[in-house]
Design brief:
4 copies of one chain form a homotetramer. Chain A has 326 residues and is of the alpha+beta class. The first copy, chain A, has a single domain, classed as 4-Layer Sandwich (Chorismate synthase, AroC fold), CATH 3.60.150.10. Chain A is 24% helix and 22% strand. Chain A is built from 8 helices and 15 strands. In chain A, the strands form 5 sheets. Chain A has a 5-stranded antiparallel sheet with strand order 1-2-3-7-4, covered by helices on one side. In chain A, α1 crosses α8, α4 crosses α8 and α6 packs antiparallel against α8. The longest helix of chain A has 22 residues. The radius of gyration of chain A is 21 Å and the shape is globular. Chains in contact: A-B, A-C, A-D, B-C, B-D, C-D. At the C-D interface, β1, α3, α6, β10 and α7 of C face β1, α3, α6, β10 and α7 of D. β10 of chain A pairs antiparallel with β10 of chain B, so a sheet runs across the interface.
Chain lengths: 326, 326, 326, 326
């Protein structure tokens, strides 16, 4: 479905090379000061342009087309659109007959009987995340200033020392390859008690949104997979005060699916960009044979760089929805 | 919320020590042969009794109370209840004033203003997963016989050699401790094209349900977190035939959020049981001090053993919902 | 779907002659005093037994099976079941081969490929409304004591003078026939501002629920269909004070889909009971001909009498959901 | 909420005097031929311009901004926007301090704490129904050519003779007043078996949508309120063939909440336009007194004329959603 959320409901649409991508948000309370400039910082974090990112650049200018009047939200649906400007016309037939490995090219054709828009990945393009980032900005306003996000890349290509990230990415580029990474988002100031048993645990909502972000293949909270390797005596978080603070935070701020007032810690594994410049042998539907494919065009060597703010947005949206439900 | 799913909708209720736990399933097509015995195999896999599990045993007998007539489903809501029989009466006040670390005791109080049912974890008890397992059995009937599940425990306490699992668990029991583990579920025979962009990716739906299962702290698909450490050239799955089969399956059968016809591979990290027999120092709300806590009663040293079938059920429910949406 | 509501979510199940009908309610806040006796008054209003009602009587005893602990709601799903006791065994094959006019017999077969439970209407039985009435009782507790319901029958068989209702019903019974009626529900004390544009107007939610009640064929608010016959100058409600009270209430307390703080006025048209004792000519699927049908068994001459409290319950549930969303 | 539907999901946004109103539709299958011209006929029926309608005219040109590629739908969200061009700037402060009777002016303020967009009714404007009409066009394509709609106005100002409608409207205009009416929509060719018990009866879904249309105050199916005045022997529809056709169609094609294969008959009561030119006495929040109000600007004397196609669109959307669920 193209909408998500119960009380903070986000609806998105668009294609990579269509006229626009957009987002409409329902459930934004009236009276929040909001202007287009407010989106620029986070949109800038998502933007291509640095090392390791594609050379396709868009203005990514947000246009508020409904829900704001005289500089504040009105309570009615808040809609923001982004025009697609820097699209290259061209022949996309190759994506159809010789689909890229680990891209949505083939599944999109199968799902939509070959009627999908193939240009630049169509609806499966990472460009759709512009709407998520915009919604994330609004979500953070709903969460309020006492809620602070700290998002960082903890791994690239298996390396945890951030000073080596540039080098790893450059090496991959030189080898016409790509690298994956891990994004960690920490959120301080979330009240205890968020999460709706049985099915809408705080983890369920965050994971649901995170796994809708292209390239995310794993999600964990607190110790996550490492918890599976620990003893209970190591992984348990003793409570130390009447507010429920714990001496450790192995749970990542969530117990029984409910926030416990400690810092939220969530990590998302981002796979290496599927588009790589080097030759790949993959099935050609026209010839009926496995044949070499060279993917032309503009790629991100390390999409993790741009995904960090998208992960943060997804976490913010889920937490805003949880807060408004409480 | 206590219901989940769009076309295969599961609603659950109950408490650990209340009268019953139950599940009602909407969207089950008419005419599926179904009797109470059909649930016993999976319920048996969830059941306590083996090494590493609690000594509280229940008959766990499923009672179909609606939706079946003359041995087949009718199309109307299918409801199955389980009576709680082997509940021990006793004083649960200690869970309120001296809540167990990493248990839902405290968050339940905070969320529900101290009005929650504290007995045995109340609504947060793992006993609620009986309904999930029952729904999973029905989900597998909807998926059909061509869809085959293979679920296994791939790690316990960090050890991947399954011949050593018993020993690790026994060691933990001797030390009055508990251990976590990893459950892997593989599903063969899932058609290509399942998943509903943008927000309801196949991964999103499975992860949503999996993170509603108590003790799950991480979920990954295919290479998962390992993908974040690979190059694109290593992680990409070349297509080898017109059906979309790939020579490798690093994606775990899902690309762009859509199933691609290859085997689904999903893993869930299960934290070590929070209830351990050894003494823990944690906050006492009556005394206002951190004090030693001894948790009495019956615990699972390794809940992963019983969680495996619950993970399988969650995956099956999500896939059934996806199939019915397609 | 068998569940309805966003914040006050009601799920129902059961068949007329199955083991039980039940309801599970999610979104009930913790700490509301609730015992089984609280349901008896409204259940009694729904009960058969008076003139114009069926002679099938059930104890209709409500059993709270989850969500209440020590006399108050816990915040977890609240589940109430009713056992089916006074079911007559018998041959229901006639309902299949010679379906009753204006009953669900035939559509149930078509929808569910002949696998439906035909006994007593199965899932389409009015007995399912037990769960609605129970949920209505809880909804009224959520709305609070300042919200007062006044529900009455304004018409039976076209007659608006209530002193003649008994006579009209008796006349219909003598003629082996049935009569319809109109139920009006007025609700005082509802705050202004309830209703969620665009699609979830206050009227939309009430009408949605009301049209799920068997036999309801029309719903109107305030002047309703009469408004269509008026001039604007006659139908408009001038505002007379700062709280938004109006000198007239032609709108029935709802403007622009939003409650305006005046009394809610809603009416539901209840068709005459489809089951009548007199002979009807209708298609026999076995013979392939239109043939006389005599419906045996116990019927309500005027189901409107029992439907009044169901209408009230539906209105209460919708208003509770709207209140909790606000 | 600003979205509606389960399988055919419509999301709308916009304000009367904002930049645009729009609609995004999820669940449109891939491969339907669709171009902007396809919307013009129905948009034309909604358009102002004839006798009895406002003199504000807009081009109402539909712009497809996502979901269509090379002349057919792609399976991705289909989005259509309408630019607001003919908006008159001006002072809307009067709507705030001296709100119009039976308009949303006051409830919008109360709901959104005075932060609502007051210009031309803001989000409560009938202009939002542009999106509904566009979605209705798509819904009719999904229903297919065998499904035929016949929509007509059966009453204006209480008069059922359509040859007198013009005269009644002209009379009202002369008297600076407005008139209401009744719209009837008949739909032929709907298959039996649509409707999802218990809560999503065919009537519930149509009524839900119809009551989200501004000015609708009553909805009935088949005999509707007249059924409440009949005997069962008069209102029952005898079945006459194996397909379930009935000799009469008092049920309006729906029994037990499920379509029975006969013609769908639904009527909506449209209240007289609240905006009238004549003076009205109503509360002034600035002076704190009831004072005469003259509403300036452009009004529809009989909004029923333009509402007919909106009613048809709402019915079509509900039926398309029901069809896709089946």
């Amino acid at each position: 479905m193209n909408s998500w959320g119960d009380k903070f409901r986000v609806t998105i649409w668009g294609e990579s090379h269509g006229q626009q991508v957009g987002v409409s948000i329902d459930g934004v309370r009236a009276g929040i000061a909001l202007k287009e400039e407010d989106f620029l910082a986070d949109l800038g974090r998502r933007k291509a342009g640095g090392a390791g990112t594609t050379t396709r650049t868009e203005s990514d200018a947000p246009h508020i087309v409904s829900g704001v009047y005289e500089g504040h939200t009105t309570g009615a649906p808040l809609t923001i659109v982004f025009l697609n400007e820097n699209t290259r016309s061209g022949d996309y037939r190759n994506l159809v007959v010789h689909p890229r490995p680990s891209h949505a090219d083939l599944v999109a054709q199968k799902k939509w009987n070959g009627q999908n828009d193939p240009r630049g990945g169509g609806h499966f393009s990472g460009r759709l995340t512009l709407g998520l980032v915009a919604a994330g900005v609004v979500a953070k306003k709903i969460l309020g200033e006492d809620v602070r996000f700290a998002t960082r890349i903890t791994e690239i290509g298996g390396e945890k020392d951030s000073t080596k990230f540039d080098q790893i990415i450059e090496q991959a580029r030189m080898e016409q390859d790509s690298v994956g990474g891990v994004v960690e988002c920490r959120v301080d100031g979330i009240q205890a008690g968020l999460g709706e048993p049985f099915f809408d645990s705080a983890e369920s909502l965050m994971a649901h949104l995170l796994f809708s972000v292209p390239a995310v293949k794993g999600v964990e909270f607190g110790n996550g997979f490492e918890a599976a390797r620990l003893r209970g005596s190591q992984n348990n978080d003793p409570i130390i005060d009447s507010e429920g603070h714990t001496s450790t935070n192995n749970a990542g701020g969530i117990v029984g699916g409910i926030t416990n007032g400690n810092e939220i810690v969530v990590r998302a594994a981002i796979k290496p960009t599927a588009s790589i410049s080097r030759e790949q042998n993959t099935y050609n539907f026209e010839s009926g044979k496995v044949e070499p494919l060279i993917i032309k065009g503009r790629h991100d060597v390390c999409i993790t760089l741009r995904a960090a703010v998208v992960v943060e947005a997804a976490v913010a949206i889920a937490l805003a929805d949880l807060k408004l439900r409480a």
